[in-house]
Amino acid sequence: MTREFVPPPRGVTVRGALEAELASAPETGLTAKELSGLVGISEKDVAGHLEHLEKSLKAGGAALTVLPAECVACGYVFRDRKRLSRPGSCPECRSTRIDPPAFLIR
Ligand SMILES: [Zn+2]
């Protein structure tokens, strides 16, 4: 079995910082936008880091939970969405007013 292992740089890694922020909000979770501001990375990079964090959490017996995005206009919930990023528009009513997914660690 081969494993990629990249030694973390000195100090706190982005993933470690994400994990700490998520652990501090176990009830409501945090959106990609909130995480980007808290950790200091761009919002579009959050999903990629979360995918890696999810793998390391699984190895430790925890799990990254996604509270699905929801359409503000009609209440449609994006339950089947696999990607961690925010959907562009609602498949039901075409509204772009989407309440973004939130992430938490359980
Ligand atoms: Zn809708």
Automatic annotation (TrEMBL):
A Pfam entry, by short name: Zn_ribbon_PF0610
InterPro entries per UniProt: PF0610-like, PF0610-like_wHTH_N, PF0610-like_Zn_ribbon_C, WH_DNA-bd_sf
PF0610-like winged HTH N-terminal domain sequence ranges: 27-62
Domain of life where this protein originates: Bacteria
Domain PF0610-like rubredoxin-like zinc beta-ribbon C-terminal stretches: 68-105
PANTHER family referenced in this protein's UniProt entry, alphabetically: PTHR40663, TRANSCRIPTIONAL REGULATOR
Entry protein name: Transcriptional regulator
Species assigned in the record: Cystobacter fuscus (strain ATCC 25194 / DSM 2262 / NBRC 100088 / M29)
